[in-house]
Amino acid sequence: MKQEIIAGIILGVMGLCMLLLPPKTLWKITEKWKTKGAGQPSDKYIVIMRILGVVFAAVGGGLLIWG
């Protein structure tokens, strides 16, 4: 029971960060250092980050409610 609550909080916070922070900021923090001379994230990266944010927030909320 306790593990589900902790996982729900972590996933919920990660999902909200992905939804609330601008995708370019997340890209600069997590991916920019991996590429050489890249100026900005691709459109696919932005869409994937938004989808993952919704999924993580939903799973985190579900774990908090039903966990």
Task: Give structural attributes.
67 residues; mainly alpha; 3 helices; 0% strand; elongated
Short description:
With about 70 residues, the protein is mainly alpha-helical.
Per-chain topology:
Elements: H1 2-20, H2 23-30, H3 43-66
Listing every helix as H and every strand as E from the N terminus to the C terminus, the arrangement reads HHH
**Radius of gyration, CA atoms, in whole angstroms:** 14 Å
Distance between the termini: 6 Å
What helical percentage do the residues reach? over 70%
Residue windows where pLDDT falls under 50 for at least 5 positions? none
Which class do the helix and strand fractions yield? mainly alpha
Shape: elongated
Mean pLDDT: 91
Overall structural domain count:
1
Largest sheet: none
Proportion of residues in extended strands: under 5%
Please explain how this structure is put together.
The protein has one domain. The protein is built from 3 helices and no strands. It has helices spanning 2-20, 23-30, 43-66. It starts with a helix and ends with a helix.
